Amino acid sequence: MAYLLLIVAGILAGAINAVAGGGSFLTFPSLMFAGVPAVIANASNTVAMVPGSIASAFAYRSDIQRLNEVRIKSWFIVSLFGGATGAGLLLFTSDKTFRLVAPWLLLFATLLFAFWQSGQRGLARAPACQTTT
Question: Which single residue of 58, 98, 101, 103 has CA 20 to 30 Å from 43?
Fold first, then answer.
């Protein structure tokens, strides 16, 4: 039964990631439900998403090229900080602690997704974040 859940979650997560991102909301909890320790589930989930991220970067390369340099640098810094913070959590916390922190991280990510559109509109009005044509 756990294998079926993982297969369905993987297929649905791939479809979600192809459209908007956020497939980890399905795969991470599914891995934990299947009995995979939280830290290993998170690391496995992240590695599994790499091919899709590369494919998305390739598919959206023309959109990325239209972004101005300030915006790309800002995203790079935020991504670097987020990645380092996440890596630190995985490396320096126990599985038990990570299980306590993970729901709060998922809530934070959910709020980011929920309010992304209004944030995008605000960023679009900021002069430093304008895209070039």
Answer: 58
Region of 60 on the Ramachandran plot (φ > 0 left; ψ -120 to 50 alpha; else beta): alpha
> What is the 3-state composition of the chain as percent helix, strand, coil, each rounded to the nearest 5?
85, 0, 15
* Joined tokens for residue 81: 């900080």
Q: Which amino acid is at 84?
A: A
Provide the whole-model pTM.
0.69
d(CA 120, CA 129): 10
**Whether 34 contacts 5, CB under 8 Å:** yes
What would the pLDDT profile of 5-31 be if each residue is shown by its tens digit? 999 998 898 888 877 778 888 899 899
